[in-house]
Amino acid sequence: FAYNTAMLSSPSSDSRSPLRVYVVCDQTATAPIWGYLIREKGLVAILETVVERAMKHALEDIPDLIVIDINAPHAQRMELCKRYRTLSSSPILLFLPASNESEILEAYQAGVDECVVKPISPAIFLAKIVAWARRSWSQPMIPLRTGPLRLDPSHRSAIAVAGQEVRLTNLEFRLLHLLMNRPGYVFKADEIMQTVWGMETADLALLKNVVYRLRKKLEEDTGEAGLIQTRPGGYSFLDN
After folding, report:
1. Tell me: the pLDDT tens digits for 169-228?
2. Contact (CB, 8 A) for 47 and 1
3. Which residue of 3, 73, 101, 239 sits 20 to 30 Å from the alpha carbon of 108, by its own alpha carbon?
4. Which of 45, 86, 87 is nearest to 67 (CA)?
5. Are 30 and 120 in contact (CB under 8 A)?
6. Distances from the Cα of 71 to the Cα of 28, 66, 74, 106, 235, angstroms
């Protein structure tokens, strides 16, 4: 299999794009089945069957759900999970070949949302995919306007007063939504990491990188500068 994308119409009646499921599966007999089941539900299936390519994939177009089902050594599975967790807050569903408590605990500590011990039936697989994909859209779904910006959850974008639209990644959108919910309030780094990434301990380098990208997008695309303020121990959105 080469890296590929197949898009079908969403079964939903709203204007959102179809939910995108990124599947890393290095088993030639299983990967097509997972892709078929996902597409049959009207979701977008993005299949990657080469672990090395998955390691290099930057996830620039952030999916709504990440599924990892590889026969690689445990250390490689953990490396992949940690990499994707640093890039996205999307749910990660990890399949394991055996029930090993220490490996399961390590996976959850790495940011995995659910571990599933194989074998698993196609019906249960699909039920989990639908449940997690739906959950990935559940926060937040209400448009938000603060100061000169309006957030549009249906398109994951920020819209300026003059109408310029800034498309955001999943992490950028969640971070901006958190800050705009309470303008002027200083969110501590640990609080941001727990809310946006689901991580208990703050990774300051990761947080600074996302803040930098978000500031750059807002300033270049809308001309609005200084919206995200650096405060002692954290960040806040400009309080007008």
Report:
1. 777 888 898 899 899 999 999 888 877 776 666 678 888 888 998 998 888 877 777 899
2. yes
3. 3
4. 45
5. no
6. 11, 16, 9, 17, 41
Look up residue 42 and give its two tokens.
Answer: 């009207």
Q: In sequence order, which ranges of the chain are alpha helices (DSSP H)?
A: 31-40, 51-56, 74-87, 101-109, 122-136, 170-181, 189-192, 204-222
User: Is there a contact between 146 and 180 (Cβ–Cβ < 8 Å)?
Assistant: yes
Angle (CA) 1-23-197 rounded to 5° is 145
Q: Which two tokens stand for residue 238?
A: 């400009």
Token code pair at residue 191: 């609080």
107: closest CA among 139, 82, 144, 125?
A: 82
Query: Residues 202-205: contacts with CB within 8 Å, 24+ apart?
Result: 203/86
The pairing of strands 114-117 and 4-6 is unpaired
